[in-house]
Write a structure and sequence with these properties.
The complex is a heterodimer of chains A (about 350) and B (about 325). Chain A is of the alpha+beta class and about 350 residues long. Chain A has 15 helices and 8 strands. Chain A has 3 domains: about 35 residues; about 60 residues; about 210 residues, MetI-like fold, CATH 1.10.3720.10. Chain A is elongated, with a radius of gyration of 30 Å. By secondary structure, chain B is mostly helical. In chain B, helix 5 packs parallel to helix 9. The chains are: A alpha+beta (about 350), B mainly alpha (about 325).
């Protein structure tokens, strides 16, 4: 009875084979898209030793260690199967070849030779948060984080300001050359930075912004997408509101920021989300502009660490998780805005 | 809030004065000025300078110090003794990069359109938790290319989970990223993995815009699901499909970030694509050959313009076709 209630569908249609296939497809998709991210997340909590283990485990296990009198270092713990078939936990003091010198934690004075075939490491689940905390001591990670946050915040604020000003002029005024300006701005959609890489480098160098965070911020603050999005939205704001304000002798600038900007808040929010995504994930422009490591963004730092000969994966994985975290949080809370924004504007 | 008011009030005198001088309608120029300035300096000016670089030689960065060399850079790029053999070209890496890019974009775009269409069709059905599933498929789109590449690099490394699975099935481990065929496969897979959600969303929006009564009519006529798909859904979705096709093509031709981090273009030049060639020639190698890089990017620009024109033509033809009907 309960089962029948739970499984009945709204339209009382039968659960056909196409539905089964659909859900199978969705579950496979869920696995393919999320399992890699989950695996990365779990791996980032592994100790350096556990990272090097093969075959790898999904959850971060470490070998349990015990502290025994007479020995200054904590010793790794094993389950030793004795000749009598009894299993008891013992700690390893040293190991030569296949023979290990073990000590029983209960009787710290006696040591015992054990063949390594006869023992199994005692493992426990433990999350190595040190991978995260040590990032800030061992690398200039705080600096990279700051650079990324600074670029993202400043660029987003400037993008919103500049684009909304242009959109205001293009939607609320009639002036000679209006069409040309609009077409010019839309035309820049066709010119991705990949095809003007060398001259952009020259321009940034000539204005003295090479190896400066502003060299990454400024070239991208005028986005055609943003102007287009905001203009379309501002067109829906009734002109009577502006006329009424003009009657009261409000200046044009005041009309822009006291009336039009607050009314465009939804469109500004969508653009802000996009801008944060673009700037936080930006790679090619920072790659050519910022070559000194003290100006690296998180993306550049990740790229440079992964390229090193002996990659320290335990740090690299933790760094990757921190880099994907803000975007994941933004997505978790603002999913609806992002997906509808993209679906309506067809932009990314 | 008070800070915002203070900030905006700072500009009040400037705009009041300009309003007095210019009049209301010409004030618009002041509003578009910051945008146009940035576009001018960082987009339009670079296009002009790009031509200067492409037609000059040497290693100097300042265009004034570079000797004019005509079309020499293009000759270096495109000259081959035998056009059926990459080895005989003066810049065989460039030709290899073009070949790789063409192969990559053809396969990637085909698979991308297929899978995003399939996903959009599934998401458009009456399923429980549609918002959740839509989010699932969209999530990787937001990840940065570097993060995407590192996620997969970690799984594909020689001691990674893929090889662990192989070994537990008594198979020999595979060098996923240093075998040329496998490396190419994974660049394809990872780029589809990362970007499919974006195109799915566009197609889903298109599917949801199809009026419901068309389907009801088809149901009345007892049309089979397959016929409904091929005779109603796909034709009505065609404008969105074209947008997806061309957008995906334009993006695929410019593939760089993920592949650069994932394989570095290797092994050899098996996964070196055109943008990476530009980056390496202009910035990464010991001698920065700006002229050659600029010439290669002009060649890329021509390709992109042709793709854009194709899109315009296809959408126009589609519109015309619909008007006739």
């Amino acid at each position: 009875m309960v089962l029948k209630f739970l499984t009945r569908t709204r339209h009382a249609q039968r659960f056909g084979w196409t539905d089964a296939l659909s859900y199978a497809y969705l579950v496979i998709g869920l696995f393919t898209l999320f399992a890699p991210v989950l695996w990365l997340l779990m791996s980032s909590f592994k100790t350096e030793a556990a990272i090097g283990e093969f075959p790898p485990t999904f959850l971060p296990y470490t070998q349990r260690t015990v502290h025994i009198d007479n020995y200054p270092q904590p010793l790794p713990l094993f389950n030793v199967t004795t000749e009598q078939g009894v299993v008891k936990p013992m700690a390893q003091v040293s190991r030569i070849g296949i023979m290990a010198t073990m000590v029983d934690p209960a009787k710290p004075q006696e040591t015992l030779q054990v063949n390594i075939q006869q023992r199994q490491p005692v493992r426990e689940l433990s999350f190595a948060t040190r991978n995260y905390t040590e990032l800030f001591d061992k690398f200039a990670f705080g600096k990279y984080l700051f650079n990324s946050v600074f670029i993202t915040v400043v660029a987003t604020v400037l993008t919103l300001l500049f684009n909304s000003m242009a959109a205001f002029a293009l939607s609320k005024y009639k002036f000679t050359g209006q069409k040309t300006v609009f077409l010019l701005i839309i035309a820049t959609l066709m010119i991705p930075p990949t095809i003007v890489l060398v001259p952009i480098f020259l321009v940034i160098n000539s204005v003295g912004l090479l190896n400066s965070l502003w060299g990454v911020i400024l070239p991208a603050v005028a986005t055609p997408t943003g102007v287009f999005l905001l203009r379309q939205y501002m067109l829906t704001i009734p002109d009577e509101l502006l006329e009424a304000a003009r009657m009261d002798h409000a200046s044009e600038w005041r009309i822009y920021w006291r009336i039009v900007l607050p009314l465009s808040a939804p469109a500004l929010a969508v653009l802000a989300i996009f801008s944060v995504m673009w700037r936080w994930n930006d790679f090619l422009l920072p790659l050519i502009v910022l070559s000194k490591s003290e100006f690296f963004t998180l993306q550049l730092a990740l790229n440079s660490f992964q390229g090193e000969l002996n990659t320290q994966w335990h740090y690299l994985l933790a760094m990757t998780v921190i880099t994907l975290l803000p975007i994941t949080l933004v997505f978790a809370f603002l999913q609806r805005y992002i997906t509808t924004g993209i679906a309506s504007a067809g932009v990314k | 809030m008070r800070f915002l008011a203070f900030f905006f009030n700072l500009f009040e005198p400037l705009f009041r004065l300009s309003q007095k001088w210019l009049g209301q309608s010409r004030l618009a120029w002041l509003f578009v000025a910051p945008n146009l300035l940035v576009f001018g300096v960082f987009t339009f000016l670079p296009i002009v300078i790009n031509v200067l670089y492409a037609t000059s030689a040497g290693v100097a960065l300042m265009p004034s110090e570079r000797p004019y060399s005509g079309l020499e850079n293009f000759e270096i790029l495109f000259e081959c003794r035998d056009y059926f053999d990459f080895q005989s070209c003066r810049k065989d890496v460039f030709w290899r990069a073009i070949g790789n890019t063409l192969k990559f974009s053809t396969i990637q775009v085909t698979l991308m359109v297929f899978f995003s269409l399939l996903t959009a069709l599934v998401l458009n059905r009456k399923i429980i938790g549609r918002g959740f599933w839509r989010g699932v498929f969209f999530y990787p789109v937001l990840l940065s290319p570097v993060v995407v590449a590192l996620i997969w690099k970690w799984l594909l490394q020689s001691q990674g989970v893929f090889n662990a699975v192989l070994i537990s099935a008594n198979q020999a481990p595979i060098d996923w990223l240093t075998d040329r065929h496998w490396a190419f496969f994974w660049t394809l897979f990872v780029s589809i993995w990362a970007h499919m959600g974006f195109y799915t969303l566009i197609l889903l929006a298109g599917l949801q815009a199809i009026p419901k009564d068309v389907y009801e009519a088809a149901l009345m006529d007892k049309a089979s699901p397959w016929r409904t798909l091929t005779h109603i859904t796909l034709p009505l979705l065609m404008p969105n499909l074209i947008v997806v096709l061309v957008l995906a093509m334009i993006r695929a031709v410019q593939v760089f970030d993920e592949v650069f981090v994932l394989t570095g273009g290797g092994p050899g030049s098996a996964t070196t694509f055109i943008v990476q060639f530009i980056y390496q020639t202009g910035f990464a190698e010991q001698i920065h050959l700006y002229g050659l890089a600029a010439a290669a990017s002009l060649a890329l620009a021509v390709g992109l313009i042709m793709l854009t024109l194709l899109q315009l033509k296809l959408t126009r033809a589609k519109d015309a076709g619909q008007k006739v009907r």
